[in-house]
Each structure stands twice: as C-alpha cells, then as structure tokens.
Request: fold
Amino acid sequence: MKKPSQSTKAQKQGDTIRQWHLINLEQQILGRVTSEIARLLQGKHKVGYVSYLDVGDHVVAINAAKVKLSGNKSQTKVYSRYSGFPGGQKRIVFAQAIKRNPQEVIRHAVSGMLPKNKLRAQRLTRLYIYKDEKHPYESMAKAKSPITSKDTAAGKK
Reply:
C-alpha cells in the first residue's frame, strides 16, 4: 500500500501572519460593512483559516461617525441595556448613540457578528475604530478597504 504523496498540515498559532486593513466607513451601511470587518477579524478570507485558532487580521476603521443605516432605522433602532436594579433600564436610539460615541456603535455591531466563544475578546482587540480620518496607524494600515462605497451602492462585494 502506498502512502499519499502530500498531506495536509495543521495550522498553528505561530504560523499566523497578520495583515492590516484600512476601512473607510463614510456613507457605508452599518450591517454590510461590519459583516466584512467581522470576516477580516476572524481570518475567514485566508487559506489557512481554522475555527479553533485566532488567525485574523488587524482592522482600522475610520470615519465611524459618518456610517449610516438603511431606511428609517436611524430614528427607530434602539440600543438598550439593563443594570439589574429596578428602574435601571436605559434606552437610546441610533441617532443619539452615533453622536455620543460612534466607536461603541461600531464595536457593538461587530461584536454581535463574531462567534460567541473565548476568541471573541482577542479578535475585538485587533479592531481600531476612529470617528474621523485621523489615526496613528498610517504606516501599517496601507491596504485599502476590500469593499468601497461604489460596490455597496451597486450591490456587489
């Protein structure tokens, strides 16, 4: 009996090469762009992706304050949290939340799209969100966004 000439090598954490991606959120629809960010953070675009290792890339998201929602959701989408005490429920609509802290709105959306496991916190630490175009990762994040505003307007990816 002959042995196979090639075998599949198991991916190891040390073999991971992380790249930097710069994504401009200006005039992008929140759900479409955050699903792409979650895909980059997980590393699903890589050939060596395995679900049990953290092989994703770094993502720098700029212009978070200029992200938009489709339809009338900017006035109707509600974020709520509860402290556990009587009368401790807080509600805020998207329009107020994006003015108050746009970084947290993006982080909340991306966090909801990542798998709920022990790798989620590690993946979120590689997400850098800035409300305008200024960011300290100019030299590293040279790769442009995998999606552009023209692609989302035309319905392509």
